Amino acid sequence: MKLDATDLRYLTTEEFRVLTAVEMGSKNHEVVPTQLISQISKLKSGGINKLLGGLAKRGLVSRVKNVKYDGYRLTYGGYDYLALRALSKRDTIAAVGNQIGVGKESDIYVVSDPEGEERVIKLHRLGRISFRAIKTKRDYLGKRRSASWMYMSRLAAQKEWAFMKILHEHGFPVPRPIDHARHCILMEFIDAYPLRQISSHPSPGTLYSTLMDIIVSFAHSGLIHGDFNEFNILIHRVTGSPIVIDFPQMVSTRHADAEWYFNRDVDCIRTFFKRRFGYESLVWPKFTSTLKEGENKRGKGEEGENGFRLDVVVAASGFGGKEQEELEKVLLILTRLCIC
Ligand code: ADP
Ligand code: MG
């Protein structure tokens, strides 16, 4: 999907009101009735059809003819627009540049701030690839039969933001988070290659240890990355040091399946180093002893005495709750389907 930055400037106040009304109506309606859009936007129904037609032409909403009523759905294009507009109003972005990544569940663009400094925006797109697969498994979703993908994408962005912020504040090698809005996260641009693109390394052993140390220090802080692999580790072009990205699936070391997630992260690195660099180490972190070390480091009994349980800190920052449980369920289904 293309991001049209010029749109940011060329939407009239009325068009913007209508677009926002469609978004608001989407909270309770899969297809928002035209009449409701008119009510929310406080515009007369005569004018509204023309405005909606214009927005539909630009791909910001799409018209759905239902048996019961006609209405509109917000598209990802419209959702992108609203998020980008919010960021540009706050002056955290000024222009959108090239797309640098197409993840399975996200689009990544280089953007610039008003001073022309490069930044990266990640737009979450849950359900884009997995839509069909998850539809066939929709019983997993319980009562919420038709999961709203935009809503899920917003939850994923919220979670990623909360974790990136806390990790950055505590000195982990992650990009500096700058701003977020709806399903988007704005962060520092890292001049790096994904580890996957590196065919040889002067010292695989050192890199292996550094990466395992990161897994260990996450766990000492009560966290597991959950998708720690060659796609989500960037190697800085100048310094050669690793930077970790992609946090929507992070879990606490108190999660019921924590050990499984931890081992999977460790195994991903072992397997990759063996296959890519022919490097095998006799040592790798073990879950139980790593947690013990963490407890000892923090100071027995008194949590947070000499360090922090970041899973607790992030929960205290208001993150979590029922909504996030729902997201976790969906992410788990995607992982099980091996498409995440
Ligand atoms: P996904 O959730 O879709 O896997 P990621 O967060 O892993 O998305 O990002 C996908 C790709 O985008 C990365 O592999 C990397 O090439 C690029 N990328 C992501 N964040 C940054 C950043 N801050 N700086 C530079 N490149 C980035
Ligand atoms: Mg990724």
What are its keywords?
kinase, magnesium, five-stranded antiparallel β-sheet, alpha+beta, three-stranded antiparallel β-sheet, 44% helix, Rio2, binds magnesium ion, Phosphorylase Kinase, domain 1, Transferase(Phosphotransferase), domain 1, metal-binding, binds adenosine-5'-diphosphate
Question: Can you offer a commentary on this structure?
Answer:
Helix content is 44%, strand content 17%. With 340 residues, it is of the alpha+beta class. It has 3 domains: 8-77, Arc Repressor Mutant, subunit A; 91-188, Phosphorylase Kinase, domain 1 (2-Layer Sandwich), CATH 3.30.200; 192-337, Transferase(Phosphotransferase) domain 1 (Transferase(Phosphotransferase), domain 1). Helix 6 packs across helix 11 (321-336). It starts with 12 loop residues before the first helix and ends with a helix. Bound molecules: adenosine-5'-diphosphate (ADP) and magnesium ion (MG). Adenosine-5'-diphosphate binds next to strand 4, strand 5, strand 6 and strand 8. Residues 65-289 form the RIO kinase domain. It comes from Serendipita vermifera MAFF 305830. InterPro entries: Kinase-like_dom_sf, Rio2, RIO2_wHTH_N, RIO_dom, RIO_kinase, RIO_kinase_CS, WH-like_DNA-bd_sf, WH_DNA-bd_sf.
